[in-house]
Amino acid sequence: MIKVKKSVQALAAYDPHLFAGRYKLDANENSYDVPPAIRKKILARIAGLHFNRYPDPGAPILRKILAKKHKVAPESIVVGNGSDELIHYLIQAFCEKGDRVVVPTPSFEMYKVLALANNAQPVAVPLNDRFDLDEKEIMNAAAGAKMIFIAYPNNPTGNCFSGDSVLRIIRDAKCLVVLDEAYFEFSNKSFLGMLKKRKNLVILRTFSKAFSMAGLRLGYMMADKLIAAAVNKVRLPYNINAVSQACAEVVLKNSPNPVIRKIIAQRDAMYGILKKQYPVVRSDANFLLIKVKDGMRTKKIFEKAGISIRMFKDGILRNFMRITTGKPEENRRVLEILKRGV
Ligand code: PMP
C-alpha cells in the first residue's frame, strides 16, 4: 500500500481562491503590468535566448546586479522561484524533524504550511489587538526554536510591526530571524542595514509585488554567506528559468517602478476615506484590511460587481476583507461599494 507521509497527509493543497472576476484584487499583485517599452526590451532579450540550453544555475548575472543595488556580496544572495521557494529551502536547510519555527499569527500562511511540509513544528504567537508583535511572547517562543518569520509589512494586516520590537528580536534572538520584506517598496522600511552585523538575519524580497512580475516567479534572499551557502546546497540547480532571469535583469535596469508612488498615494487616500466608516488598518503595503459586518454577504456583493477580494472567515480575522490597491478605476469601484455600506 502506498502511504503519504503523515506530515503531508495533514496538509491541504493550496487554494488559490480563483475567481473569474474582471477586477482581480485578491492576491496583493500589482494591477499595473510591466510597461510596454520595458516589455519590448524583454521580448528582444528572450528572442536571443537558447531554449535548448539549461539556464545559468544560480542566476549569477541577476545576483550581481542585485548585489550592486543592495551593496552586499553576490555570495550573500540566493534567488528563488518566488520567495515561497526560499522559505521552503530555509526550513529544509536548517530545521531537523520537530524543530520549532516561530510564526506570528495572523501572517503569511506559507510559513506554517512549509514548516509542516518539512516536518518542522510551527509555533503560532498571536499578534496583539493592534496587530503588532507581542515581543515578549515571541522571545519566549524563540528560546529553543530554529527560526522566526516576521513579515514586514505583515500580510494580511498590511502594517509594519513596531520597528523597535523587530530590532530587539533580531539583536537578541539566538535563532535565525527571517525578515520577509515582500512589500518593502511600499513601506520604505527595511532592516537590510543590520545584515552585516547580525549573522542570524535573513532578508527576503520579491519581484511579485512592486516589480509587477508575479507571473514570472522570482524572489531573493540576502543573508550571511554561510546561510546562503547552506540554502544553495538544497536549492534545485536550475530553479530560475532563463526567461525569468532575463526579465528581472531588464526590469531592474529600469527601476524604480514609477507606479509604486501612485499605488502608495491611492492606498493612503482610500485609507483616509474608509477609516471614517470602517475599522481599517493603516497600511504600509499595497493592500488594505477592512472589517465589515457580514463577510459572506460582502463577498457576494463584490463578486456580483466583478471584483475579487480576499475575505477571512475564522478567528481574529473573521469578517475582515483584504483588498489590493489597484488602478484608480478599480479603487473607485471598490470605494463605491464600501461607501454604500456593507
Ligand atoms: N511573503 C509575503 C509576506 C507574501 O505576502 C507573499 C505573497 N503573497 C510572499 C512572501 C510570496 O511571494 P512570491 O510571489 O515571491 O513567492
- Cα radius of gyration in angstroms: 20 Å
Order of helices and strands: HEHHEHEHEHEHEHEEHHHEHEEEH
Share of helix among residues? 25-40%
Number of discrete helical segments:
13
What overall geometry do the principal axes of the alpha carbons give?
A: globular
Q: What number is the mean pLDDT?
A: 96
What is the number of E strands? 12
Percent strand: 15-25%
Record the strand order, biggest sheet. Answer: 2-8-7-6-5-3-4
Each distinct ligand? 4'-deoxy-4'-aminopyridoxal-5'-phosphate
Structural class: alpha/beta
Largest sheet: 7 strands, mixed
The stretches of 5 or more residues where confidence is low (pLDDT under 50) are none
End-to-end separation in angstroms reads 52 Å
Could you explain how this protein is built, in words?
The protein is an alpha/beta fold and 342 residues long. Helices cover 38% and strands 15% of the residues. It has 13 helices and 12 strands. The strands form 3 sheets. The chain has a 7-stranded mixed sheet with strand order 2-8-7-6-5-3-4, sandwiched between helices. The chain has a 3-stranded antiparallel sheet with strand order 9-12-11. Helix 2 packs across helix 10 (242-253) and helix 4 (83-94) packs across helix 9. The N and C termini lie far apart (52 Å). The mean pLDDT is 96. Residues 28, 82-84, 108, 151, 155, 180, 182, 206, 208, 214, 219 line the site of 4'-deoxy-4'-aminopyridoxal-5'-phosphate.
Give the topology, please.
Elements: H1 6-9, E1 23-24, H2 36-47, H3 60-70, E2 77-80, H4 83-94, E3 100-105, H5 110-117, E4 121-126, H6 135-142, E5 147-151, H7 163-172, E6 176-180, H8 184-187, E7 201-206, E8 219-223, H9 225-234, H10 242-253, H11 259-274, E9 287-291, H12 295-304, E10 307-308, E11 310-311, E12 320-324, H13 328-340
Parallel strand pairs: 1-10, 3-4, 3-5, 5-6, 6-7
Antiparallel strand pairs: 2-8, 7-8, 9-12, 11-12
Helix pairs in contact: 2-10, 3-10, 4-5, 4-9, 11-13
The structure holds 4'-deoxy-4'-aminopyridoxal-5'-phosphate.
4'-deoxy-4'-aminopyridoxal-5'-phosphate binds at residues 28, 82-84, 108, 151, 155, 180, 182, 206, 208, 214, 219.
